[in-house]
Write a structure and sequence with these properties.
The complex is a heterodimer of chains A (861) and B (252). Chain A is an alpha+beta fold. Chain A has 27 helices and 25 strands. Chain A is 55% helix and 18% strand. Chain B has a domain of 169 residues: P-loop containing nucleotide triphosphate hydrolases (Rossmann fold), CATH 3.40.50. In chain B, helix 5 runs antiparallel to helix 6 and helix 6 runs parallel beside helix 7.
């Protein structure tokens, strides 16, 4: 049996190559993600281990809350603690530490031209207090000296080179406090590297770092070094009793691991996204592989029957088909693993090229990655081959003596019933979209419904494929004569095969269609919301971070803009995260906005359920109606916000809003916010111009007045709306790019099915050639068959995508998705594109069919 | 036949011909001379049967003259056209417009109806069939009530009748039939041969038929006998008995 399997593999090597490609791509995506993750993990582990090389113990405050973008927010430490720790027996050195984190428009250092150093997105700028003792800092002074006065700074070598700055130059730093000019007194290296993983390191005196970070006289961390003979753990044990309950002490190893995991959690979303798309690719791959094995088994019916006739047991037949699958899966998994490493290498090379100066670590291939890749590759192939293999065992020995019948099954009662049941289940889940009351809880249910509906479509597919293809192709004979007629009949003759082939495409297209319609609806909804809510003439915002967190900028910008002649009303809106305690004692981490109640409604028109924005006073808060409903919040209740730095605000509910676009989940006054947090940042400043003033002129003047702050943009109404639409577009583009993988696999599936069908039809094709079909007509027949299959998959996929996005828009109506738009142009374009992909997939099979030797074809008997 | 020279056939009376046709498969020890210098003319309006034992080259001769296979050396003509010099496209056009085929089995496209199979070569050419000819052919083979059926819904004899109708409906210059009755019972076979005979007599159709069945050969106007790639004998106005006697003589 083993020899037979091997022979059979060799016989069908070309088919199997395309099968392998489907698995290889999926596994490569998965394995690549794992390798990349492990490599980055290792890189950061190395980096932070080096960072804290000589620190034995690290003291820091407890986590107040975690922001998905900004990471852990911690309690601050009293300055007196530094001295107490220094007095602990066995401690030789102690250093306090404070730092601020910069990106976008805030906490950036400007080069000689006034442009910020470093990328807007990517490695951050670190404004840190200088640690004097060389044993407690990873930095080494390479030129000049350390900062000694509050107006002196030191920069890492790479950043200074990037900004063309030299020791002795005056350097501008933009913080939330405004612009400050420092004297550059020295350059540092990170160990021997010119930067710490591409970050811009700015070293200041402790007092200046505390001022910028807004910690007052408190510090964020305290580093300690033990004398020889005292272990890290012993040191930690001795320090721990001194600490207040809101602080913790870690060994250097623990601290390094913690930082490194903090940084890595920033990559989590990225990793999950890649794995989801890899999973989709593998799912699509299952269809392609299953189809290939089905056809191979069908073509070998006689051979299998002969085996059964001469005494092979069912088990042996099953074994031979599954063994084939195991061999194919193993080869594909190994190739996928190798390709995945290549992919990871490519991404790290890309990261290096983009300027993040990561220390080079060789690719990390953990045993787990190898095992998971092999298991996935083998598992997917085996699952896909299982049904065809079982079908192979059902071949009766007598089939060896009969002509091979064309597979006409597909419309079985069981299939119809099963499909309808799954469809109803899906519809039931989808109906949650209409019954939900503006809650995110409905989304998983709607998602499950979507998956079920797609499964139902795939189950019922073989029943409907024949009639659908005939309907689709009904116009073809008029257009293409007998060639079109043959193409239609060929696509319809084996409904199960056609259905499985187009299902592979259906999945990818349903997702593309879903995203396309959803994005168009989101764009229109956002536009409508902005047109309703924004009455002003212009907006100032940071141009960094379309996909990341909104980047804030100092309130200085609003002050500067206010001085411009022609500016009438100017309203800054800030943004922060906080630990929020509802009156029902439930605590969550949420975003909130800070507003200026006075003038707010002159520029913006928020929807209120109760109360008025202009009546919001210090000590008050406005709560979104959905939050209020969930937690039974009424006007007059008290809500507690614990903000960055640890301050807790007790706020009285003064209004209930229904406008997450403008007022977020919670809105408080700027004054309250400014008092509570170290960093008061605006994320947007909305303005109107005086009557008669020219908006463009005023905007140009505002731009000039605020030019000192980097990465700002001033947009008029159209620009602002366009900017929001652009953000959606760039998000959609990323998803399209990731879905391309599954579409490519589906394409391979179409090519594969066509090749196998052509093998089956060798005699028929030979006959056609004999009675006068020329090669061009032969190619056209195959081409149109491919187009019909791909257009079928596309149309069903788009229909599903359309329906699902309709459900999703309904489910998210409470989040401002008020419009449902069907972008007919885009959908038509997708269909044409799919037809072209079908043509592409048919190229090779069509070429081979047209080159068949006529005599070989008709002489086969 | 050896008396024929290598001059091109005179137009008008000769539908197809071969001149010094050689077809060699393999080389060295495994060399097989399927055709070893065959020259033959097929005259207009005549029904020729080609006979010979297995491996005599009779099918190869038919394939080469019909433009389905190429020669190692020599020439074949359909009408006045030298097929050996034609491109694949031109050759396909000759087969489509000048030649009709009836094969032993698997003659029809399973996805097309009987009528669509009959008109297939003309559909491929984008040409409308001559309705009068089509009607008469369909009535001759008695398929009027089966036109919308798929091949799988027809008996073997009916399928061969569709194939014959296809070969005749396009008014091809010459029809090649390769063992057309090989898979049929004797009654259905006699029917098919009767249709072919009528086409020759009533429509002046030229037919070349490869067969190993002396009864089938008895329907022809003349019989060519092939052995080892050469034409070894010829008989005019054969009967099945005379054919059997001649074959016995050749074998002896």
């Amino acid at each position: 049996m083993l020899r037979l399997t091997r022979r059979s593999l060799w016989e069908h090597k070309r088919r199997l190559v395309s099968t392998i490609v489907a698995i290889v791509l999926g596994v490569a995506f998965m394995a690549g993600t794992f390798v990349l993750t492990d490599t980055l993990d290792r890189t950061f582990d190395d980096l932070f281990a080096e960072h804290n090389e000589d620190v034995d113990a690290q003291v820091q405050g407890d986590v107040i809350f975690s922001d998905p973008f900004l990471g852990d927010q911690r309690q601050l430490l009293e300055p007196g603690l530094v001295g107490e720790i220094a007095g602990v027996e066995g401690v030789t050195k102690v250093a306090p530490f404070a730092a601020a984190f910069g990106f976008g428009s805030t906490n950036r250092i400007l080069d000689a031209e006034g442009e910020p150093i470093g990328a807007a997105q990517g490695p951050p700028t670190l404004l840190e207090s200088w640690v004097e003792d060389p044993e407690l800092t990873p930095y080494v002074v390479a030129e000049g000296r350390a900062p000694a006065a509050d107006d002196e700074i030191v920069l890492n070598v790479a950043a200074a080179e990037d900004g063309e700055l030299e020791v002795g130059d005056d350097v501008t730093v933009v913080t939330q406090l405004g612009r400050t000019i420092y004297s550059l007194v020295g350059l540092i290296t990170f160990g021997t590297a010119e930067s710490s993983a591409g970050a811009v390191s700015v070293e200041l005196t402790l007092a200046e770092a505390q001022r910028i970070a807004g910690t007052g006289d408190k510090v964020q961390q305290i580093f300690a070094k033990a004398e020889d003979g005292v272990s890290q753990q012993e040191l930690v044990d001795r320090i721990a009793p001194l600490l207040p309950p809101t602080a913790e002490v870690l060994t250097a190893e623990q601290a390094a691991a913690q930082i490194s995991s903090d940084v890595q959690s920033g990559f989590e979303f990225f990793q999950i996204a890649l794995q989801v798309f890899g999973g989709i690719a593998l799912l699509v791959g299952i269809f392609v592989i299953s189809n290939t094995f089905s056809i191979l088994v069908a073509q070998r019916t006689r051979e299998l029957a002969l085996l059964r006739a001469v005494g092979a047991s069912r088990g042996q037949v099953l074994g031979s088909v599954l063994l084939e699958a195991v061999l194919v899966g193993a080869v594909a998994a190994v190739l996928g693993l190798v390709a995945g490493m290549g992919l990871a290498k490519g991404v790290t090379a890309l990261l290096e090229a983009s300027g993040s100066d990561l220390p080079t670590t060789s690719l990390q291939l953990r045993p787990a990655t190898v095992i998971i890749s092999l298991v996935i590759g083998l598992g997917v192939t085996l699952i896909a081959a299982m049904i065809p293999a079982i079908r192979a065992t059902r071949v009766p020995p007598l089939a060896a003596l009969r002509d091979v019948a064309i597979d006409r099954s597909g419309a079985s009662r069981l299939r119809i019933i099963g499909g309808v049941v799954v469809l109803l289940l899906g519809a039931l889940n989808l109906s949650a979209a209409w019954t939900s009351d503006g809650d995110t809880d409905a989304i998983p249910t709607v998602g499950l419904g979507a998956v079920l509906v797609i499964i139902a479509a795939i189950v019922i597919g073989p029943v409907l494929a024949g009639p659908s293809v005939r309907t689709l192709g009904s116009g073809l004979p008029l257009l293409r004569g007998v060639t079109g007629r043959l193409a239609t009949e060929n696509a319809a003759r084996s409904p199960k095969r056609t259905s499985a082939t187009s299902s592979a495409l259906l999945i990818g297209v349903a997702l593309v269609g879903f995203i396309t319609v959803f994005a168009a609806s989101a764009k229109d909804s956002v536009t409508a919301e902005v047109e309703r809510g924004f009455k002003g003439d212009f907006v100032i915002q940071s141009d960094a971070g379309a996909l990341g967190p909104p980047s804030g900028f100092p309130s200085l910008v609003a002050e500067e803009a206010a001085t411009v002649e022609g500016v009438d009303v100017l309203v800054g809106v800030g943004f922060g995260s906080a630990r929020i305690r509802y009156p029902d004692e439930v605590e969550v981490t949420q975003r909130f906005v800070s507003i200026e109640p006075e003038g707010f409604e002159e520029v913006l028109s928020p929807r209120m359920v109760e109360g008025e924005v202009s009546k919001l006073t210090d000590g008050g808060i406005i709560v979104d109606d959905d939050r209020a409903e969930d937690h039974e919040v009424d006007v007059g209740d008290t809500i507690t916000l614990t903000v960055v730095g640890g301050a807790a605000l007790e706020l009285e509910v003064q209004g209930i809003s229904d406008d997450e676009q403008l007022l977020g989940n919670f809105a408080i006054t700027r004054t309250d916010f400014a008092e509570a947090v170290p960093e008061l940042l605006d994320i947007q400043v909305f303005g109107t111009v005086d009557d008669g003033a020219d908006v463009d002129d005023v905007m140009a003047a505002v731009e000039e007045a605020t030019a000192g702050t980097p990465s700002l943009e001033v947009l008029d109404r159209d620009g602002f709306i366009g900017d929001l639409a652009d953000q959606i577009t760039s998000f959609v583009t990323v998803i399209y790019a990731l879905l391309v993988l599954s579409i490519i696999i589906a394409l391979i599936g179409i090519a594969n099915t066509l090749s196998l069908s052509i093998n089956e039809r060798t005699r028929e094709l030979g006959l056609l050639r004999a009675v006068g079909m020329h090669r061009g007509q032969m190619r056209a027949t195959i081409r149109w068959e491919a187009v019909l299959i791909s257009v079928l998959g596309t149309l069903v996929g788009l229909a599903l995508g359309l329906g699902l996005s309709y459900a999703m828009v309904q489910a998210l109506e409470g989040f401002g998705l008020t419009k449902f738009v069907v972008p007919l142009g885009s959908l038509a374009l997708i269909t044409v594109f799919a037809a072209l992909l079908g043509v592409l997939a048919s190229l090779r099979p069509a070429h081979r069919a047209s080159r068949l030797a006529i005599l070989d074809a008709i002489a086969t008997s | 036949m050896t008396s024929l020279t290598a001059a091109p056939p005179s137009d008008g009376t000769i539908a197809a011909s071969a001149r010094d046709a050689h077809k060699i498969y393999g080389s060295g020890d495994t060399e097989v001379r399927a055709l070893d210098g065959v020259s033959v003319d097929f005259e207009d309006g005549r029904f020729t049967a080609i006979m010979g034992p297995s491996g005599s080259g009779k099918s190869t001769l038919m394939h080469c003259v019909a433009g389905l296979d190429d020669l190692t050396s020599g020439q074949v003509f359909i009408g006045g056209t030298d097929l050996t010099s034609l491109s694949d496209k031109a050759l396909t056009k000759v087969r489509r417009d000048e030649v009709g085929f009836v094969f032993q089995s698997f003659n029809l496209i399973p996805t097309l109806s009987a009528l669509e199979n009959i008109t297939l070569p003309m559909d491929l050419a984008g040409r409308r069939p001559d309705q009068a000819v089509l009607d008469s052919v369909i009535d001759t083979v008695g398929l009027r009530d089966r036109l919308s059926h798929r091949p799988s819904e027809l008996s073997g004899g009916q399928q061969q009748r569709v194939a014959v109708a296809r070969a005749l409906a396009g008014q091809a210059r010459i029809v090649f039939a390769d063992e057309p009755t090989g898979n049929l019972d004797s009654r259905a076979g006699a029917e098919i041969l009767g249709f072919i005979r009528r086409a020759v007599d009533e429509m002046g159709q030229t037919v070349v038929m490869v067969t190993h069945d002396p009864v089938a050969a008895g329907y022809a106007d003349r019989v060519l006998f092939l052995a080892d790639g050469k034409i070894v004998d010829e008989m005019a106005d054969p009967t099945s008995k005379r054919v059997i006697d001649r074959m016995k003589a050749l074998a002896g």
